[in-house]
Amino acid sequence: MPTPNWTELTRFALDLAEASAQEIMPHFRKDIPVDVKAGAVWDPVTEGDRAGERIMRAMIEARYPDHGIHGEEYGKKPSRSGLTWVLDPVDGTRAFISGMPTWATLIGLNFEGKPKVGVMNQPFVGETFYGNPDGAWSRHGGAERKLATRPARPLAQATFTTTAPELYRSDAEKEVLRRMTQAARLTRYGGDAYFFCVLAAGQTDVAFDARMEPYDIAPLIPIIEGAGGIVTTWEKGDPAQGGNVIAASSAALHDEALALITPA
Q1: Three-state DSSP class for 27?
Q2: Would you say domain 155-261 falls under CATH 3.20.20.70?
Q3: Residue 90 to residue 72: CA distance in whole angstroms
């Protein structure tokens, strides 16, 4: 199978981000209905989520009908090309319905199961992060810059980020969170996908979350790795399939964090 044109596909992913923003933003900071998905955990969804995914799916099917799609709201369409788009129109719906601008649209493209292109777009702030096999970049205020993680530092000097303590539900997961918050110099909560992107931008050191779905993390992997970071599961496995995920700014810090959490 020939190598895909990553530049062309990245440009299309950015087009998807712009189009989805036009569908999602009319619902942000408005008095909108909030539905709850079935399941043991409270999982809200809005028409903003659904509208954002609908426009992206329509654009993909019109431009690349052989590509697969895995979206949070409308499920899976099988691929006939080895390429599959991974979509989370509003990652951080809890933030979205609370009026906080830490939600994001996540758009990923996997080739033969491996994340190759990723976009994180926050249209209210006007900031976009994206990555592909050539690197990672951010756009804000009309300026574009190449991303790079910051130099390695020990965990005792690191900033550790995770979305929320309540996402750590088992005793083992809670123990991992306790160890990490005690070991790091600074802990911050509530950033959702933003934490993985500011790590790629060289602002933080460890991004960490439990029980992620593939569409929560696969679009972020090209951004993290394109900036020089490392991302795996807590067991050092493939993060593209979701699960408990850790991203670090350096291999040394990643190893130190894994050594801390492995006994749990």
Answers
A1: helix
A2: no
A3: 9
Place of tokens 């050092």: 236
For residue 260, how many other CB atoms are within 10 A of its CB?
16
Whole-model pTM: value is 0.96
CATH of 6-134, one of 3.30.540.10, 3.40.50.300, 3.30.160.270, 3.20.20.140: 3.30.540.10
User: Sheet harboring 143-146: ordered strands across?
Assistant: 75-77, 68-71, 83-91, 104-111, 114-122, 127-132, 135-140, 143-146
Based on the number of CB atoms within 10 Å of its own CB, is 42 exposed (0-12), middle (13-18) or buried (19 or more)?
A: exposed
- For 17-30, how does the pLDDT look when each residue is reduced to its tens digit (9 = 90+)? 999 999 999 999 99
Name the strands in the sheet holding 159-162, side by side, starting at the edge strand that comes first in the sequence.
186-189, 159-162, 206-212, 243-248, 230-233
Dist CA 207 CA 197 (whole Å)? 9
Q: pLDDT per residue over 30-65, tens digit each?
A: 988 888 876 667 778 899 999 999 999 999 999 999
Provide DSSP, 127-184.
Answer: EEEEEETTEEEEEETTEEEE--PPPP--GGG-EEEES-GGG--SHHHHHHHHHHHHHS
What residue spans define the domains of the chain?
Answer: 6-134, 155-261
Q: Do the Cβ atoms of 107 and 119 come closer than 8 Å?
A: yes
Angstrom distance (rounded) from CA 77 to CA 24: 22
Phi and psi (nearest 5°) for 96? -60, -50
